[in-house]
Each structure stands twice: as C-alpha cells, then as structure tokens.
C-alpha cells in the first residue's frame, strides 16, 4: 500500500486545449489543474505582472489607517510597529519601519519574546510603549483577536491600528482601524495576503496618497520573504509579490540576505521560492524560536556588512541548535503519541517541551501520522501549545468552539496556537478529540498527492523542465508539477544520508536513465520492487558547482499495485 492516496487529476477538455493551442499541451494541462479556466486568467498567471496587484483602498478601514498614520508623520509623533516573532511578522515589521522612516517618520519596532511574552499584543508591552511617549501603535501579523488588550490601550490613551491576516473573531477589537482582507464584508478581491502582504498594501496606500506610489520597489523583497515563509498560496497577488521580490533578491539582495546566502553556501542569483522555504526562512525563524527575533529584524535592516556577517553566523548557529533540538523532541513526542495509541487527534504534552519548536514538532507528527496534532508545554498554572492539522479538519474552527477554555488563541485552518489555564487542558483535549472523531469518521487518513499528469520518463527530456518554469514561483496553491510514471525499471537503489534516512535510485524507462532521490523514505527500502510506479517532481540537483536534473520521488509502489 502506498503512503499516499494518489489523485490523478482529470485531463483538460479538448476545447480547453484548442483554446490554448499556442501553449504546449503539458503546460496547458498544468494551467488547467491550477484552476485557470479562462484565457485572461492564463495570461495574467503566466505574466504575473502588476495586473495582479489590487487597489489597497478596497481594504476595509484603509482610509482610516493611513489618515491616522499620516497625522503622526506630519506632527512628528513617534510610531511603534508591533510585530510577531515569525518570519512573516519580522519581515512585516522591517517593511513598515523602513517604509515609514523613509517618509521622515520616527518609528520603533517592537517584537515580543516568544518564550517570556508569547504571541500577540500584551498589555505590559503597550504600557511600556506608552511610557516611552508612543501615541500610535501599528500591529503587523497580529492584533485581530486582542480584544481586551486594545480596550486597555484605549483607556491609556494609545491608538491602535491593526493590520493582520488571521481569522477574526465575531467581536472586533475597538481599534482606530482594522485592515484585514478576511474581515466579513470586505470588498478586497484577494483574501490570502500574509501579514507582510497586508503591511505592504498599507504602505502602498499611504505612498499613493502622497504622490509617491512608485517608490516601494526596494521593499518588495521583504514581502516575498514573508509570503513564502508563511506558506500562503502563491496565487493572485501573492504570485506577483513573490515574483517581483525574487527578482530584486537575485539582482541586488540587501546586505542581510546576501550574508544569509553566503552563510548557507547558496549560489547567488538563482534564489527561488524553495530556497526561501528551506534555507532562508528557517534561519530567520531560528532567532524567535531559540531566543529573540530582534536579531533577524536587525539582519534585514542593517547597512553594515560586518554586522550582517556577524548576525548571519549567529542565525546559522541558532538554526543548527534548533534542528538538533527539534529532532530529539520529535523522537520523544512520537514515543508519547505511540504509547497513548493513535487516535483521530494526537496530543503530546510535557513541562520540558521547548515552546519555540512546538509547532515544528506538531508539524512533523501531523505529517507522519496524518492526524491533527497538538504539542503542549505544560506549566503549573498556565500551558501553551501549537497545533498543526490536515485539510479535513479545521483546527482554528475547533479552537473557536473551545474558546471558553482558552486564555488566548489564533491562527489558520491548518496551523494555530493557544494559551490556557493548565487545569483546562484535559477538557480541551477531550473537546478537540470529540470534534476530530466526529469530523474524521470514515475518512481515509492518508495524505493525498494531486498528480498533474501521467507521463513516460522519455517524455521529460529536452526543454520540458525549462517550459514548466514558466509557472514559477512554486509553493502552496501552485505546487511543483507532479508526475506519475508507471512500470519504471529499478536499476539500482540504496540508502543514503544519516542512518540511511533517504533512498537513492537509478531508474530506466524507454532507453532513458534517470537519477532519483526519495527523501525520508529510507525505511521503505524493503518495499522497492524491480519495477515501480512512481510519483515525483523534477528538480535541479546542485552539487559542487554541477547542475543535474533528477527525480524527487514523493511516493512509490510495486508496478500495478498503486
């Protein structure tokens, strides 16, 4: 039995192929699979140009937000940007500080400490900002669920402008303005902006209102970094922001990004969304996970090559520590889950779990067992947890149903976090388990791979790979093209990596020979048959300055048994 459910997407209708006859059939199929049904949609997707950028004034309360900020700029009133400690929040904070400072503003950043303060607006932090003479706080990537904190800020004479992209609660905080594409009744046509995407639109509206609309090009790299790091769908406006940001990073990266590239031994000029996901974003996130996110903020803002190199080295070290701690904690949490028996919802809790990596551990367990997963650091009085889920179970909706048990929570359908009194933890587990049991009853709890097309390996030669790059940048919502090839001959297969974690293949079909790698499938060596059906992506393997096209094998099964 394969590890995934294989879903071969239906072929594009004949009339669709005819209507796009100027495009190669395989590319046409890929476009059809991504929901691009009209010629105008196909053109805008392939161009990924400014036509995908929407009018920022369509966002609810945008006029109120820029009016309050403009008043602060005119009067010299200091402004605080209150961000989040992940890559989305860090890039959003840097973007607004840089953008408002360029307009002559007095702007200071504030990013809470994950371990000592936690996510979102905190009254103590707001009180400290007020004592420093701050009259206006602009949130990025947080604030939409901070009802009591905004009410208290009001009472202390502090104006709050909320920019966020998380799911709102039924009751809105009493802020001066709330800019969030997910607000009920919003006229904004694209709801999937990230925190940094919303911050970018705020600056865009402000700059346009004062006749400086074309001066944001140097900030689009930050929008791209945060958008990819937050795993938002790379469709619509996100596609435009990421494409433009990658161009800037490859053409003239800011000092901090250049230092990260050098530290990670990447080749300059060939950054793509995958490099951000697997190399740059984890290093930016490492600061907030292990210590204080301000180090990553400073890296993005520095104009000193010496400081950039120093901070990049520090982040490299912290990321290595994070990787080691994550691996040991995953092993421990996995044993805890197995000892409890696999149920529709998995919970691993312990007073020693390091909160900074709880989300990563939950993600690994959710991927392995394909169940919604909670990883909780328990305290004597207060506990905090991170949740990762599967498409069949909306975790933020489940937490919303359980909000009477929680002190604070927020997030998305697939990823969320919460804090609660420890005495409520058993009831929360019971409530979420009951919801998961009801909603997942009868569901085949294996992840699904959507397969774009069935092809033979000989058909992938020539310029096929280069043609598919027209669809880049790839990511959530626009995944790497995925193919199925049947009855592929296994010429050689062996384990590789630490402890034989991965499989390396030499494959053949129709007179062609291909190298392939199956990451994290080393335990399935015994399942390798002489002939396999394989599901895979095409990727460039860059090793010691040499580039080779190879198969990234996601799943396989003996030929005829898939």
Describe this structure in words.
The chain is an alpha/beta fold and about 550 residues long. The protein has 4 domains: about 55-250, Alpha-Beta Complex (inorganic pyrophosphatase (n-terminal core)); about 255-330, no CATH class; about 340-440, Diaminopimelate Epimerase, Chain A, domain 1, CATH 3.10.310.30; about 450-560, Beta Barrel (OB fold (Dihydrolipoamide Acetyltransferase, E2P)). Helices cover about 40% and strands about 20% of the residues. The chain has helices at about 15-20, 25-35, 40-45, 60-75, 85-100, 125-130, 145-155, 195-210, 220-230, 235-250, 255-265, 275-290, 295-300, 305-340, 360-370, 395-400, 425-440, 465-470; strands at about 5-10, 80, 105-110, 135-140, 160-165, 175-180, 345-350, 375, 380-390, 410, 415-420, 450, 455, 485-495, 500-510, 510-520, 530-545, 545-560. It has a 5-stranded parallel beta sheet, sandwiched between helices. A 5-stranded mixed beta sheet has the order 7-8-9-11-10. Strands 14-15-16-18-17 form a 5-stranded mixed barrel. The longest helix is centred in the middle third of the chain and has 36 residues, at about 305-340. The protein starts with a strand and ends with a strand. The mean pLDDT is about 95.
Brief rundown of the structure:
By secondary structure, the chain is α/β, with parallel strands linked by helices. It has four domains: 56-252, Alpha-Beta Complex (inorganic pyrophosphatase (n-terminal core)), CATH 3.90.1640.30; 254-331, no CATH class; 341-439, Diaminopimelate Epimerase, Chain A, domain 1 (Roll), CATH 3.10.310.30; 448-558, Beta Barrel (OB fold (Dihydrolipoamide Acetyltransferase, E2P)), CATH 2.40.50.460. It is 40% helix and 20% strand.
């Amino acid at each position: 039995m394969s590890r995934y459910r294989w879903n071969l997407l239906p072929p594009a209708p004949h009339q669709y192929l005819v209507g796009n006859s100027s495009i190669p059939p395989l590319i046409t199929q890929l476009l059809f699979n991504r929901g691009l049904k009209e010629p105008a949609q196909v053109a805008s997707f392939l161009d990924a140009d400014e036509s995908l950028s929407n009018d920022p004034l369509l966002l609810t309360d945008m006029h109120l937000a820029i009016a309050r900020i403009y008043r602060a700029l005119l009067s010299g009133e200091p402004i605080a940007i209150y961000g989040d400690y992940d890559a989305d929040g860090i890039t959003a904070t840097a973007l607004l500080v840089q953008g408002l400072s360029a307009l002559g503003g007095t702007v200071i950043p504030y990013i809470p400490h994950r371990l000592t303060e936690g996510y979102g607006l905190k009254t103590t932090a707001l009180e400290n900002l007020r004592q420093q003479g701050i009259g206006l706080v602009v949130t990025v990537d947080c604030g939409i669920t901070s009802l009591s904190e905004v009410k208290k800020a009001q009472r202390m004479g502090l104006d709050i402008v909320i920019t966020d992209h998380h799911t709102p609660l039924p009751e809105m905080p009493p802020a001066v303005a709330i800019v969030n594409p997910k607000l009920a009744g919003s006229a904004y046509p694209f709801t999937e902006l990230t925190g940094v995407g919303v911050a970018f639109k705020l600056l865009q509206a402000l700059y346009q209102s004062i006749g400086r609309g074309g001066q944001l090009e140097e900030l689009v790299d930050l929008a791209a970094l945060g958008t990819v790091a937050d795993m938002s769908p790379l469709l619509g406006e996100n596609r435009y922001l990421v494409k433009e940001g990658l161009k800037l990073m490859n053409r003239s990266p800011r000092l901090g990004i250049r230092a990260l590239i050098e530290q990670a031994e990447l080749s300059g000029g060939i950054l793509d969304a995958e490099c951000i996901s697997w190399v740059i974003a984890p290093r930016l996130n490492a600061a907030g996970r292990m210590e204080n996110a301000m180090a990553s903020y400073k890296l993005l803002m520095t104009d000193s090559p010496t400081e950039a190199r120093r901070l990049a080295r520090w982040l490299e070290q912290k990321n290595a520590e994070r990787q080691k701690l994550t691996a040991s904690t995953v092993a421990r949490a996995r044993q805890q889950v197995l000892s409890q028996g696999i149920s529709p919802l998995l919970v691993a809790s312990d007073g020693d779990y390091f909160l900074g990596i709880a989300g990563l551990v939950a993600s690994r367990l959710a991927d392995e067992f394909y169940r919604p997963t909670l990883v909780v650091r328990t305290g004597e009085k207060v506990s905090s947890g991170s949740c990762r889920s599967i498409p069949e179970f909306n975790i933020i909706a489940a937490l919303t149903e359980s909000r009477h048990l929680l002190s604070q929570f927020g997030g998305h359908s697939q990823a969320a976090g919460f804090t609660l009194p420890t005495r409520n933890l058993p009831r929360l587990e019971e409530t979420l388990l009951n919801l998961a049991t009801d909603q997942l009853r009868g569901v085949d709890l294996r992840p699904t791979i959507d397969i774009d097309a069935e092809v033979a390996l000989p058909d992938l030669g020539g310029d096929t790979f280069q043609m598919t790059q027209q669809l880049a940048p790839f990511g959530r919502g626009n995944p790497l093209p995925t193919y199925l090839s049947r009855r592929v001959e296994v010429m050689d297969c062996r384990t590789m990596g630490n402890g034989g974690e991965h499989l390396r293949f030499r494959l053949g079909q129709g007179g062609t020979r291909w190298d392939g790698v199956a990451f994290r499938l080393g335990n399935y060596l015994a399942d390798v048959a002489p002939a396999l059906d394989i599901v895979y992506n095409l990727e460039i393997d860059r090793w010691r300055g040499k580039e080779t096209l190879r198969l990234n094998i996601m799943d396989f099964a003996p030929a005829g048994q898939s």
